[in-house]
Amino acid sequence: MRLIYIIGLLTVIGTGALWCGWYGMARRRIAAMLAAVSILAGGVLLLLAVLPDYSFYGTTVTHNFAAGKNVALTFDDGPYPPYTDELLKILEQRQVKATFFMVAENAEKHPELVAKIAAQGHEIAAGKRILEKLSGQKITLMRPPHGFRDWAVIDTLQKNGLTAVNWSVIPRDWTNPGVSVIVDRIMEQMHPGAIILLHDGGSPKYVASREETIQAVSVIIDKLCAEGYNFVTVNELMQKGE
N or C: which end of the chain has fewer CB within 10 A? Predict the structure, then answer.
């Protein structure tokens, strides 16, 4: 069952309990308790669906502490020229592999970028059928939009041979807080086996600049390399320490 239906049902129960509570003092306290429990349960279920590092609804990969000083750079919402092109140049110069969680609609608009990403050895995820066709890669990973997942989402992923991937390091780069802020936030949150969430796209309108992210990536790679970190794809990260 989809989470939204369950939350809706709990809200109806809670509202109904409050309404019934107006009829008679003896029932008011019980009605208020039932309403509070229903609303609280709905809130908890919703929270568990959006918190990135919980697997309440099913397996969600956010990190791998056993991977040691290996970390995964991931990029969402592309491909998005010219920023994806600029990012690929930086990754190629520094010989760093990353994982791209693409929007299938964008991939169809920019198949040359999908092919370029695959040719450079980066990992491509999400939009299974379309991206497999465009990249020639077998797609095994998906990042649920905004990290949201419930039983229905996880069931759909499992039926399609996909694993949900969220993150453990998030600098909120899509808000364009400044290059130094993006870098500082990542360095403050960094830990062995981390999955870093960044954006080379600007879903849903694709009018926002991703230049701050692109500039930050160079600094992030240099700083983490200086601290002994190694960059791998998400699938490689998951296999470390097994």
Answer: C
